[in-house]
């Protein structure tokens, strides 16, 4: 009996071509490319600069987008206000939008006091024109240089803000920013006296309740309106490139904001500022924005409430100025103007935060720059201590010479 023949036809399923494969390479998700930002090397979060490069290094590289920085003001609100101006000036140079809220000074006055950038590649049209005139050989005497460099081509001057894509800039606090650069920046302002007509007095509440004052409610609603209208929360499809909103809130918690947090040990609206910070952080988390808030912590009598305010912020630093204190005349701190304390650092995409390697930090205001450095004490402690020690050594030498019988020369120092 013959065996059945097997059919040698085409297979029922088509074979894959030899040049295809089922393996797919996993690609990393691309971060949003925005001028003035970069991904953090620690957690991959998109960060921006505070305007002070030394402060960026202390807090882990910069401020993460969607976070809140708390600055505890110094006693005279001079250096904390300067840090706020640095933060806003960095936003102007990078092309970010600004939101400035204040109850004392008008936002336009704050913008007029921003420090001027000192980089060569950030040039206004006037500066570029002056530079072109200085390079013209007809306008000045020909400079004598080596013969081998006479026929080299001249460098072209770029009139655009070429450094807007850089991360971190340097500023000159002795000069103000060019008005042309400030006018080119887009700024949203909130001046409390202008909104006071819409702010009504808080209604009477029973003891134990601490509603948020109308001043904070008005500020929070105005800020939410700006974020939604400009599309920073992603609700409106943006036809242009994405941008960052830098929010600067000056001196929250003071009496100017209709808050008695700094006036009483047990304020009637003790949870007003914490409630505002809850709402602010919720908006920051869902938008391309970053905020800096200054609080007069030295006026807040209830330290427990101040601790709650600090814990509600992502990053918190405190400034202690030497002005008006005994440390101002102390030779130990003659090279510094105050101390800086890092209260809190954020936990972003990680279980632990990157703590600074040295907690003894001090700041000083040079002729043109504000810098943060490690606190280094002089080797001899101070000149006064050295003089006192020298006098004590002389007296000890006189007593020792009479006891050891070294002769009549009692003013000589003993060498052991």
**What structural category do the secondary elements indicate?**
alpha/beta
- Cα radius of gyration in angstroms: 31 Å
Proportion of strand residues: 15-25%
- How confident overall, as mean pLDDT? 78
Run of helices and strands? EEHEEHEHEHEHEHHEHEHEEEEH
Biggest sheet descriptor: 9 strands, mixed
Q: Give the uncertain stretches in residue-range form.
A: 121-125, 131-142, 152-164, 199-210, 399-410
Say how many strands there are. Answer: 14
Question: What strand line-up does the widest sheet have?
Answer: 8-5-9-10-4-11-12-13-14
Q: How would the global form be characterised?
A: globular
Cα distance spanning the termini = 122 Å
Number of helices: 10
The amount of helix comes to 25-40%
Can you describe this structure in just a few lines?
This protein is α/β, with parallel strands linked by helices and 416 residues long. The protein has ten helices and 14 strands.
Describe the structure.
The protein is of the alpha/beta class and 416 residues long. 26% of the residues lie in helices and 17% in strands. It has helices at residues 53-58, 79-94, 107-112, 125-134, 179-184, 192-195, 214-229, 272-285, 303-311, 383-404, and strands at 37-39, 46-48, 63-64, 68-72, 97-102, 115-117, 171-176, 187-191, 245-249, 289-295, 315-321, 338-344, 361-365, 370-374. It has a nine-stranded mixed β-sheet, with helices on both faces. Strand 13 (361-365) and strand 14 form a beta hairpin. The relative contact order is 0.16. Mean pLDDT is 78; it is low at 121-125, 131-142, 152-164, 199-210 and 399-410.
């Amino acid at each position: 009996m013959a065996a059945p023949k097997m059919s040698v036809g085409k297979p029922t399923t088509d074979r894959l071509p030899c040049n295809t494969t089922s393996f797919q390479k996993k690609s990393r998700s691309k971060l949003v490319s925005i001028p003035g930002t970069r991904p953090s090397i620690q957690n991959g979060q998109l960060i921006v600069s505070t305007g002070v490069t030394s402060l960026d290094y202390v807090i882990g590289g910069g401020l993460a987008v969607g976070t809140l920085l708390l600055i505890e003001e110094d006693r005279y609100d001079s250096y904390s206000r300067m840090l706020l101006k640095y933060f806003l000036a960095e936003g102007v140079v990078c092309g970010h939008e600004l939101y400035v809220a204040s109850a004392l000074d008008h936002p336009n006055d704050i913008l007029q006091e921003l420090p001027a950038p000192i980089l060569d590649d950030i040039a206004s049209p006037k500066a570029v024109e002056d530079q072109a005139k200085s390079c013209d050989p007809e306008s000045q005497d020909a400079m004598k240089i080596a013969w081998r460099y006479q026929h080299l081509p001249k460098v072209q001057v770029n009139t655009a803000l070429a450094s807007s894509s850089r991360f971190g800039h340097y500023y000159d606090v002795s000069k103000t920013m060019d008005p042309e650069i400030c006018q080119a920046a887009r700024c949203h302002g909130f001046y409390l006296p202008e909104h006071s007509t819409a702010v009504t007095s808080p209604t009477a509440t029973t003891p134990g309740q601490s509603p948020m004052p109308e001043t904070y409610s008005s500020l929070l609603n105005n800020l939410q309106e700006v974020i939604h209208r400009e599309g920073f929360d992603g609700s409106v499809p943006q036809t242009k490139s994405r941008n960052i909103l830098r929010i600067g809130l000056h001196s929250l918690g003071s009496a100017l904001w209709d808050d008695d947090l700094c006036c009483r040990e047990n304020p009637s609206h003790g949870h007003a500022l914490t409630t505002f910070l809850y709402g602010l952080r919720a908006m920051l988390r869902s938008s391309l924005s970053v905020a800096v808030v200054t609080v007069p912590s030295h006026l807040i009598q209830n330290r427990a409430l101040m601790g709650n305010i600090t814990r509600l912020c992502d990053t918190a630093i405190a400034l202690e100025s030497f002005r008006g204190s005994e440390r101002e005349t102390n030779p130990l701190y003659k090279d510094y103007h105050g101390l800086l304390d890092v209260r809190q650092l954020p936990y972003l995409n990680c279980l632990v935060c990157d703590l600074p390697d040295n907690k003894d930090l001090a700041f000083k205001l040079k002729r043109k720059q504000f810098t943060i450095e490690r606190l280094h004490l002089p080797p001899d402690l101070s000149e006064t201590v050295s003089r006192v020690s020298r006098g004590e050594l002389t007296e000890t030498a006189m007593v020792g010479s009479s006891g050891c019988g070294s002769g009549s020369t009692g003013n000589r120092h003993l060498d052991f």
